[in-house]
Amino acid sequence: MSPKLLAYIEKDSWIHRLTGSTKLLCFLMWSMTAMLSYDTRVLMVMLFLSYLMFKISRIDFKEIAFVFYFILAFLVINNLAVFLFSPYEGVHIYHTRHDLVKLIGPYTLTWEQLFYQFNMTLKYLTIIPIGLIFLATTHPSEFAASLNKIGVSYKIAYSVAIAMRYIPDIQRDFIEISQAQQARGIDLSRNEKLLKRLKNMGAILMPLVLTSLDRIETISYAMELRSFGKYKKRTFYSERPFRKQDGFALLGMGGLMILFLWITFSNGSRFYNPFL
């Protein structure tokens, strides 16, 4: 298991040197563009650019592989659910029907449905790398400062920052408790049957919950002793000043957003239709 899970990974890259506010705004613009567009041409270009930015960030894939595969698993489940509950959504969108394979019952696989779900998958794959880059290159304290800078209450911003810090702590505690329980003879390996392994997991989850509750109580006492929430505003030690490279990043992302949305809606619809 990776030593870090959705945690800040310190590197020396151009993306790391951007302020948290800049990265947050760029991420929001990128996500909004990907969600609005169903133009395959735009999504393919965005997919290429997203993985190019991942390379620029210098984040090793193995450092975020667990999270990436976890999201992909949910993406597969989502695709299956879309086909199960709306097998002809593509037909309704593109106003044509080309049957590919007749399945059981009322289900027939069509080219339109495949193309629709292909575009839907592209949308997620363009956002996932950028989201992982944002989380891996932004320090939690700086993230809180960036949220507060764009108008979010510092109480909410600080809560989000604590949650981001808490994820690696939970993972570390899980590993330590798991190793301690295995040293006491509780087998969690593949040698045991699945049901037995699930039952043995209870010996880990209960201490993990109690440890988490104890940490929450400690943090709440520390914040209360420091009069957290007494004033309407506060400053952040990790907040960094806005620089030229931040302006270039925002202008570049804003320009890409306008260009991609113009291409998307140039034919009067946000759906690219190759079946006409």
From TrEMBL:
The keyword Transmembrane applies. This is Cobalt ABC transporter permease. InterPro entries: ABC/ECF_trnsptr_transmembrane (IPR003339). The chain crosses the membrane at residues 27-54, 66-85, 114-136, 247-265. It is found in: Membrane. Pfam families: CbiQ (PF02361). It comes from Turicibacter faecis. It is a multi-pass membrane protein. Keywords: Membrane, Transmembrane, Transmembrane helix. PANTHER family: ABC TRANSPORTER PERMEASE (PTHR33514:SF1), PROTEIN ABCI12, CHLOROPLASTIC (PTHR33514).
